Amino acid sequence: MTLILELDVGNTAIKWRRLKAAEVVESGRLIDGVDGVCDLLLGAVDMIRVGSVASSDLEARLRAMLAQSGLEYKFATSQLECAGVVNGYQDVHKMGVDRWLAMVAAFQVKRQACVVIDAGTALTIDVLNNDGLHQGGYILPGVSLVLKVLAGGTGRVRFGAEDARSIAPGLNTDSCVHNGKWLGLVGAVRAALSEAELLIGDQYDVFITGGDGLTLRRLAGEVAASWCYHEDLVLDGLAPVLAKG
């Protein structure tokens, strides 16, 4: 039976899983760059699917590593159309493939209007109508980038580690910064949903993924009670997107 290795290569980590048929048999997360992929190739792998938004240098290293392995591999790219989803970009190849994979995977669940949120290094929000037509989206800094900008761009705003995740007003610089970063993301998502409703109406599903997805959903409160968290939404899009070719 074919054993497939799937890789979601992001800006700060690589998510991976092994599939036998359609069943996930093993999964994990690499934080040491592409070097850790070597170990994943040592097992019994027949084919590799990749979705990458890594830098050009990092992706070139990964491609060289996969080519040297002699294993069959495919890199997903953003497309004009796939599995009922139609890309709204004028130049579809300029859309990050992680967004495309997540949208294709989300639309397959119920095949109706949805908003897809990926809370990772960047916060991305994309809107699909009932016909699978991409209505547009947003790209914002994620929590780690917000902290990086504050640390590097201000002379006197100095802060330590986060004690608790909250959007309550802070009573010291640490909590003001950390609570503020979450408030900004929650507020952005709420505003994006309001804008989405102007385009697709108020009957839609919200799918959320990414390393900060669960925290963002919790902090959004009652409005997020029906949001569907899918940890592997990007990986789930690899099969249909690569089948389309």
From TrEMBL:
Chief place of localization: cytoplasm
Coiled coil, from the record: none
This enzyme's EC code(s): 2.7.1.33
Gene3D superfamilies in the cross-refs: 3.30.420.40
Positions contributing to ATP binding: D8, V9, G10, N11, T12, A13, I14, K15, T121
Domain of life where this protein originates: Bacteria
Family annotation (Pfam families): Pan_kinase (PF03309)
Record note on cofactor: A monovalent cation. Ammonium or potassium.
Pathway linked to the protein: Cofactor biosynthesis; coenzyme A biosynthesis; CoA from (R)-pantothenate: step 1/5
Active site residues of this protein: D98
Subcellular location: Cytoplasm
Record field: catalytic activity: (R)-pantothenate + ATP = (R)-4'-phosphopantothenate + ADP + H(+)
Annotated substrate binding sites: Y89, G96, V97, D98, R99, T173
GO MF term list: pantothenate kinase activity
SUPFAM superfamilies, alphabetized: Actin-like ATPase domain
Sorted UniProt keywords: ATP-binding, Coenzyme A biosynthesis, Cytoplasm, Kinase, Metal-binding, Nucleotide-binding, Potassium, Transferase
InterPro entries membership: ATPase_NBD, Type_III_PanK
Residue positions binding K(+): D118
Function, in words: Catalyzes the phosphorylation of pantothenate (Pan), the first step in CoA biosynthesis.
NCBIfam families: baf
Family of the protein in this entry: Belongs to the type III pantothenate kinase family.
Subunit structure: Homodimer.
The name this protein goes by in its record: Type III pantothenate kinase
Organism the protein comes from: Zhongshania arctica
Gene designation: coaX
